[in-house]
Amino acid sequence: MDVSIVFNGLVAGCLYALAGISMNMLYRPTNTFNFAQGDLIMIAAMTCAALLGVTKLPWYLAAVLAIVLAAAISFVEYFVAIAPMIRRRHGVGWIISTLSVSLILQDIVGKAFGPDPRKVDPPPPFTTDLQTLGPLEFNSYQVLVLVFTGLMVAVTGWFYTRRTGKAVNAIAEDREAALLRGIDPNRLAWMSFLIGGVAAGVIGILAAPMLYASTGLGPLLVIKGFEVVAVGGVGSNRGALIAGCVLGVVEAVSGATLSPGYQNAATFAVVLAILLVRPAGVFGTATARAV
Amino acid sequence: MAAVQGAQSRGGHSLIVGSLVFVAALGVLPMLVRGEYVLFLCTQIGIYYLIALGLNLLSGYGGQISLGHGALVAIGAYAVAISMVDYKLSFWLAAPLALALTAGAGALMALPAFRLSTWYFALVTLGFANVVGGLLTEWRGLTHGFAGVVGIPKPALFGHVLTQGELYWLMLATCLGAFLVVRNLVASRFGRALLGLHEHAVLVQGVGASLVRLKMQAFVISAVLAGLAGAFMAVHKTVITPDDFPTDLSTFFLLVIVLGGMGRLHGALIGTLVFFIVPELLAALHDWRLLIYGTALLLLILFAPGGLAGGLESLARRLGRGGTAAADEPSGSPELQRIDGAALKVQSVSKHFGGVSALSDVTLELAPGTVHAIVGPNGSGKTTLLNLISGYYPLNGGSISIGGRDVAGLSASHIARIGVRRTFQTPKLIAELDVLENVMLGAYSDETRSLAAIGLGLPGARREARERTAEAMRYLQFVGLHKRAHDPAGEVPHGQQRLVEIARALVGRPSLLMLDEPAAGLSLSELDGLATLVNEIAKLGTTVVIVEHHLELVANLCRSVTVLEGGRILASGTPAAVFNDEKVMAAYMGKRAIAAGGEPT
Predict the structure, then answer these.
(1) What is the DSSP string of B379-396?
(2) Which residues on B lie below 8 Å from A227 (Cβ)?
(3) Who is most buried in B261, B273, B282, B509, counting CB within 10 A?
(4) pTM of the full predicted structure?
C-alpha cells in the first residue's frame, strides 16, 4: 500500500478529529451537540478566503478576523438557539434550533460568497509543495496540521485537569448537582461557546488550504465531526484523535480503490459497525443515572 | 392531543360528518378544476402528507428527530422505478418490495443509534442521507446516475392503466388509511409510551416497555410511510432523478411537522397544507427558500413549539371547550380485584459508582403482602436500593429475588413485566396526555393486542382498549381522582400527581409496589389521605415498599422498617423497636439531642 495515501488520510483525519474536539468542547457544559458547528468552521474558511482574495490583507490578519467572526456567531448562537432550549428542558428543541441556525448560515454564506470553492494559500513559511522522504510524499503544511492537532489535544486535556475544566466536567456529569455545588453552568456554557467558536475559526482557516473553502465544508464536517465523536466516545478528546486518524485512513484507503460515493458509504458502514459493538464509543463510558 | 380526543368523544357525530365532508371534498374538488395542474399538485400534497405523517409519529410523538427521511423516500421511489422500468414488474409487486426495502435499510441503519441518545439518531440519519444521496449518482449501474429513471408507467389494474385522476383517488385512499392507522396507534398503549420516550424514558421502561423495540417500531412504521410516499412519487412523476431528492429534503419535512404541530394528530395535515399553499403564493421568494426554512424553524421552535395545531388547541381551550366531561363518571367505591403479593429477598447487595460506595452488604427480606419501609438520611442509599430492585442499575454484588425469581441482570422493563411497579420522587407524568391516559400507561405490559391489530382497529383491540380504559378509571377512582380524569396531566397539582402515579402503578396490578417518598410535598390533609390509601393498597394483597422521611407515617403504616445510613443497614425490625434504637436516634437527631432527652417521633 502507498504510504503517502495513509499519510494523507492521517492528516485529513486530524482535521476531522479537530472538528470533533470542538464539538466535545460545547457538548460538555451544555449536553448539546451543535449542528451548526460545521458551518462555523466553514464560515471561518470562507471569510479567510474572501479576505485574502479580495482585500490582499496579510494572511495572519485575515485569519484573526475570520476567527473573531466565527466566535461572535457562536456566541450569538448560544443565546438565540441553545440557552432558551436548555431553560425549557424540551428534549429535542435544541436539535431543531441549531439545525435551523445551520440552514441560515449556509444560505447566507452561499449567497454572499457564491457556490465556487475557493483556493486558499497556506500561510508563509508553510507550503503545499510536495517533498519526498523515502516512499513518503508530504508537505510542510500537513506537518503543521499534525503538530497543531497534537497540541490541541494536549491543551484541552490539560484544561480539564484545572479547576474550571473540572467544573465543566461536573456539569457534563450532572447539571443540577453542579449547580448545587456553586458552579454556574450558564456562565461556563456561554464561555464554552465563545471558545468553541474560536476553535471553529482556527479549524476553518487550518482546513482551508487543504480542503478548499466552500459551503459544502459545513455539512461535510458536521458529519465527520459526529462520526469522530461517536466512535471516540462523546466527550473524549483522546478518543476523538484516535477515531479521527482511523476514519481518515479508512476514507483515504477506500478512496484510493473506490469512487467518492462508495467511499462515504464505506466510512459510514465502519462507524455503524463500531457503534453496534460499542454503543458508547471506544473511549466513552455509559453514564448511569436513572431517577 | 387530549383536547382532540376529548372533542372526538364529545363532538361525536358532527365531527364524523365534518371529516366525511372534508374527505369527499378532497376527492371531488380537483376533478372540477380544468387542467392537470391542480390534480398534479394535489397528488403531490398527498405524497408529502404521507411522509409528514410518518415523521410526526417518529419525531413528534417519539422525540426521535430523523434527518434522513428524504433518503427513505428516495429509496422507495427508486425501488419502484427500477423494478418497474428495468425489471418490468407490476406496481403491485414493486410497491411492497419498495416498502420492505425502505423498512429494512432504515432499521439496519437505525439499530446502533437506538441504544444511544436522541442526537446520535439525528446524526446517524443525516449520515445515512448523505450516503444514499451519494449513491444515487454514483451507483450508475443501478440508478442510471444523473439521468435518473425515465418512463415509469402508471399502475395498471386488470389491464386498465390508471389515469392521473384515478391515481389521485388511490393516493387519497392511501392517505386516509394511513391516517386512521396512525390515529389508532397514537391513541393506544404504543402511542402513550412513545410520548414518554424522550422525556421520561425511565418511566417507559418502568411500565415494561423496551425502549429499543419501541423506537424501532416507530421508526419502521415511519420508514414504511416514507417508502410508500416514494412509491407513489415514482409513478406520479414518471421520471425521477437525483435532483428530486436534494440534501435539504429531510429538513423540509421536519419544518412541515414543526409548523403543523409536532406530536399533534393533525400536525402533519396542517403543516403539509400550509406548506403547499404558502410557496404557491410566494413563488418569487424561491431563491430565499433555505433562509426562510431556517428562520421559520428557529422562530417556531423558540416561540411556538406546538406549531399551528398547538395554537389551535389552546385557542379552543380558551374558548371554553376544554372543560371536563362529567357524564360517564362512576360513583361510590370501586371493586378491585385482589393482587397476589410477591416475596422480596435482597441478599448482601452492594453498589458503587466509580469509587463511591452507595450501598454495601444490604439484606432485606419481605413476606408477600406486607408493607415495609426504608428510611434513612438523605444520601443513605434508599433510592439507589429501589433502583437496584427495579433494575435501573446493575448490581455490583449480592442477589435480588422477587417472588422466588432471581432478577439480577434483568433489564428494568423485564422486571416491570414480572409485576414490579414504582412511583418516583419527582412525579413523572406525561404532560401531553390527560390524567386517565397517564394511568393507562401503567398497564402497558398487560395489554396483549399486537401493534397490527391496534393499527387496523380490529374488534379485539378495540374491546381491549375499552376494558383498559374502564379499569384505569376504576383505579383512578380508587385514589380519588376520577373527577380529574380528562384534565391535562401537566395541570394537576403536585399532591395529586403523586396519586396519579400511584394509580398508574396499581393498574399494572403489581405483585411488588415501591413508593419513593410518596409523602414529600404533601399537605397535612393529603398526608392523612395517603395513609388511608396505602392501607387500602395493602388490603388488596400486594407487597409494598415505601421509602419515606416521614417517620410518623411509617410508624403507622408498616409492620417492619429498615434504616439505612451511609449505604449500610443501621437497624431493622418493627417501627417501635427501630425508632427507639440509640444508633437510629443518633443518626437522625445527633448525639447531643439524645443526651438532652429528645423524642424520636
Answers:
(1) TSSHHHHHHHHTTSS--S
(2) 127
(3) B261
(4) 0.89
Asked if A103 and B116 come within 8 Å (Cβ–Cβ), the reply is no
Average pLDDT over residues A62-88: 92
Question: How far is residue B261's CA from residue B307's CA, in Å, rounded to a whole number?
Answer: 4
Residues of A in contact with B63 (CB under 8 A): 91-92
What would the pLDDT profile of A85-134 be if each residue is shown by its tens digit? 888 765 788 999 999 999 999 999 988 888 788 888 888 778 778 888 87
Q: Which domains are seen in chain B, by residue range?
A: 37-316 (1.10.3470), 344-419+510-595 (3.40.50.300)
Window 30-89 of A: residues touching B by CB (8 A cutoff) are: 32-33, 35, 80-81, 84-85, 88
In degrees, rounded to 5, the angle at the alpha carbon of residue B217 between the alpha carbons of residues B214 and B222 is 125
Q: Is A136 on the interface with B (CB under 8 A)?
A: no
Strands B405-406 and B420-422: unpaired
Give yes or no for residue B420 having a pLDDT over 50.
yes
Exposure string (b/e) for A93-132, b if CB count within 10 Å is 16 or more? bbbbbbbbbbbbbbbbbbeebeeebbebebbeebeeeeee
Residue B441 near residue B430, CB atoms below 8 Å: yes
- B122 vs A contacts (CB less than 8 Å): 35, 95
Q: What is the ipTM of this complex?
A: 0.90
Q: Which three cell numbers stand for residue B112?
A: 446502533
In this predicted model, what pLDDT tens digit does every residue of B356-408 receive, in sequence order?
888 889 999 999 989 999 988 888 889 999 999 999 988 898 999 999 899 98
**Closest residue of chain A to B351, computed from CA coordinates:** A288
As a whole number of angstroms, the distance between CA B21 and CA B116 comes to: 45
Q: How far is B430 from chain A (nearest CA, A)?
A: 13
Window 92-111 of A: residues touching B by CB (8 A cutoff) are 92-93, 95-97, 99-104, 106-108, 110-111
Q: Cα angle at B448 between B442 and B451, to 5 degrees?
A: 95
Q: Rounded to whole angstroms, how far apart are CA atoms B107 and B35?
A: 41
Q: Do A92 and B393 touch (CB under 8 A)?
A: no
The residues spanned by each domain of chain A are 9-128+135-226
Collect all residues of chain A within an 8 Å Cβ-Cβ radius of residue B387.
290-291
Chain B contact for A276, CB < 8 A?
Answer: yes
Residues B185 and B57 sit within 8 Å (Cβ to Cβ): yes
How would DSSP label each residue in B544-580?
A: EEEE-S-HHHHHHH-SEEEEEETTEEEEEE-HHHHHT
Instruction: Output the CA–CA distances (angstroms, integers) from residue B85 to B95, B166, B240, in the order listed.
Output: 13, 21, 12
The residue to which cell 428557529 is assigned? B298
**What is the residue whose three cell numbers read 484573526?**
A64
Mean pLDDT along residues A19-26: 92
CA angle at B274 for the pair B270 and B277, rounded to the nearest 5°: 145
A272 touches chain B (CB under 8 A): yes
Closest in A100, A261, A280 to B138, CB measured: A261
Rg (CA), chain B: 28
